[in-house]
Amino acid sequence: MSPVLIRPYEATDIPLLFEAGRESRSTIGPWLPWCHENYSEGEARAFVEAQIAAFASGAEYTFAITSPGGRFLGCCGLNLIDRTNRRANLGYWVRASEVSRGVATSAVRLLGAWAFENTPLGRLEIVASTENLGSQRVAEKAGAVREGIARSRLHLHGRAHDAIVYSILRTDPRTVSA
Fold first, then answer.
1. E strand or H helix at 100, and its extent?
2. How many helices (H) and strands (E) does the chain have?
3. Does residue 147 sit within a domain?
4. b vs e for 32-64, b when ≥16 Cβ sit within 10 Å of the residue's Cβ?
């Protein structure tokens, strides 16, 4: 498994995110509609600026995934935070040139550990289309527990997708080791 680091986004990540997104249109575009054929540096700038503000306010926690040497590898984060029920959605993607190297699995483990050390969240959910086998493998390798299939849970490119729901719990030792 590849060693990776996660850190909050910085303004200097804008061109790095843009480059990684453009490189990865064919691999992540089917699952992440923001990554489209005409993805622009302006969209990358708007995203990074929004994530910096959201992190500061505690609305969302989005991280750049990097190599120890600083190469931008992808993104992971917590969004759709439900403070009443102490849960959040955990998402991730890795640039095309770094797929199948353990990057996403390592990032999910690091993010889970960060969430349980730095927030009161007790449940992290990963929701992956039943057609997104790569994301399912990441969730399972990271120790997330498959709970079931939610019908028409995701809408991607104008089409409903059934999705597998996974969980990582603060209280489950299988899912909290980094």
1. none
2. 5, 7
3. yes
4. beebeeebeeebbbebbeebbebbeeeebbbbb
In a domain, 60, yes or no: yes
d(CA 155, CA 178): 31
Q: Domain for residue 74, yes or no?
A: yes
For the chain, how many structural domains are there in total?
1
Q: For the segment 66-122, what is each residue's pLDDT rounded down to a tens digit? A: 999 999 999 999 999 999 999 999 999 888 777 788 898 999 999 999 999 999 999
Give the SS3 label for residue 145: strand
The pTM of the whole model exceeds 0.85:
yes
Find how far residue 144's CA is from the centre of its chain.
Answer: 14
Burial of 18 (0-12, 13-18, 19+ CB in 10 A): buried
Query: What tokens does 108 get?
Result: 């999910």
**Cβ atoms within 10 Å of 7's Cβ, excluding its own:** 11
